[in-house]
Amino acid sequence: MKNIIVGQSGGPTAVINSSVVGVYEAAKELGSTHIYGMVHGIEGFLKGEYIDLKDVLDEEKVELLKRTPSAYLGSCRYKLPPFEKDREVYEKIFSKLDELEIEYFFYIGGNDSMDTIKMLSDYAKENGKSQRFIGIPKTIDNDLPITDHCPGYGSAVKYIATSLKEIIRDNESFGVEKPTVCIVEIMGRHAGWLTAGAALAKGEDCCGVDAIYLPEEVFDIDEFKARVKHLAETKSSVVIAVSEGITTADGKFVCEIGAENAPVDAFGHKQLSGCGKTLADIIHNEFGLKTRAIEFSTLQRAATHLASLTDINEAIEVGKLAVKAADEGKTGMMITILRDNNYGIYDIHDIANVEKKIPTEWIDSENKQMKNEYIEYARPLIKGELLPIFKDGVVCHLIRK
Length: 401
Description:
Layout: E1 3-8, H1 16-30, E2 35-38, H2 41-46, E3 50-52, H3 53-56, H4 59-66, H5 87-99, E4 102-109, H6 111-126, E5 132-137, H7 153-171, E6 181-186, H8 193-196, E7 211-213, H9 221-234, E8 238-243, H10 275-287, E9 291-295, H11 299-302, H12 309-327, E10 333-337, E11 343-347, E12 363-364, E13 369-370, H13 372-378, E14 390-391, E15 394-395
Parallel strand pairs: 1-2, 1-4, 4-5, 5-10, 6-8, 6-9, 7-8
Antiparallel strand pairs: 2-3, 10-11, 12-13, 14-15
């Protein structure tokens, strides 16, 4: 029967392994003889690194896999060259696919991963290859176009909102004359979807963050200092959420102030971090206030213990639908999520390397907050929980051996 292969690429999420579960379960139902998993994505596959999931998964391990963060199969940040310039790489990939008699290829990832699906499907079409290639959306950044939202986002935002409530509660504990100004740095290079999730911390039991700064808007450092000064004069606690990718009017990342030579990854993306610390230092030096910088970093994408059940279920479903789509003859496409438990499929050429930002009409620029339109969009995505499995007091994960 049909052999399939699935890989994971880019930054992991709390539910990326649930999409592997979806592919695995649908492929088993299809009767696939081999359900291969690339070890460290396309980069590992080029080195001949893969496993047969049918040899390592059973019902108990599948349940544990849903509760396991990071990429169980291993991830990569490998950019395929254009096949017009380097056919050897593609010939090696397709030779391996032929050798393993693989008919369906699935890749779970974000913008750059969908570019891999695009190039492989284009090569297959131009060279008469029969394999089918389907993209499965994944990114905490929530910046893939066409799809309403992305698996991984709901769980990351659930963690962000929960953690900020806890930070706010902690910061409010001390009724001192001069408040502690807490700057919380959240992932987001050009799109502020994650930082927008800070708005979900507000509720009957929490006043919410005092300001939200997104990369969709130019960061005005004078406005920032004036706002913090006013907050510090009128409140006993100040907590502000900032995207790591906020930039000044001249296009410079705030985190680059004092750090001009930031390293880049394989796709040429600067590795961003430190804007929270930079802003905290500016406030401390200018106003003499006690400041604290908190960087969520990888915590926001690894907190499977706080994953959204809605997010887990959608991640499983897009994996299953990818297998169904390939079996129906589709290729060069990505599964999309619509609202109200509906799904679709779309041409990968309109998705790869396209970045979706927050609609400007959802941003309250004057008050540095999110409008109700965002709250209504995001709140359903964080609903529900899947309890972890504990052993000796700590959560259990499934480890590839």
